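EI: anyone free to look at a 263-residue chain?
SC: sure, send it
EI:
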Amino acid sequence: MNAGDWAGRSLGERTVAYDERDAILYALAVGAQADELDLVFEERLRVLPTFALTLAQWAPDALGSLGAFDTTTAVHGAQRLEVSRPLPRAGELHLRSWVEAVWDKGGAAVFDVAVESEHFRATWSIFAPGCGGFGGERGPSAPRGELADAVEVPVQTSPTQAATYRLLGDRHHMHIDPEAARAAGQPRPFLHGLCTLAATVLGIARRAGADPTQVQTLACRFSAPVFPGERLAVRMAPGAEVAFSAAVEDRTVLSGGRVSFGG
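SC: here you go
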């Protein structure tokens, strides 16, 4: 079957369980500090909404396992998240997933994988080289333009951050094994895109005086990898919906970002 034939295909349903320890480990893995007690102390715990993305990672992985694309060359191109209610401190979530769309980029295809529960709806966009040319629609283009009136926020990653984050379930070897990273075209193991994104949102919330556990909507494109220990320069344009991007020196790593907070 060609890439376009995957559109609309169900990826099944799954019930995922987690406890307070998992939610705290996640917060620490994306950069929460020891004095942010509502993120790291079980007596006051509120769960970061981006934790939902680790719970639903099985869905794009399942599509790769079915043979829709080459898992050694496909990359996470973009992410969207819409939060309908806060995640509980611990418990079970029933998730269902399907291939929402497949876009034809010519030499590549983009698979949009949707995951839905009563708490959130998330969409992964997976960029798969070699899968295009099937005659489908090209789909939306990357957002362009500079951020007006942006302020810069530094976000420091840890040299051990990828090794910690992978304990949450995304154990793709390219994030820990130098040989696997080189096979994926990178000089060394690199940080998970979702970890970079969550760390960025945490930095934005601190600067904006917003509650990071009150993310309502989030969208971003992944432009280049971040290597553990690098310092991000996050540019954000404050407002009801914060526009943002992130770079490491002259290398843009996140683009077209948008996040809104409730509370």
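EI: Helices lie at 20-29, 37-40, 51-55, 58-65, 161-165, 178-183, 193-208.
SC: 👍
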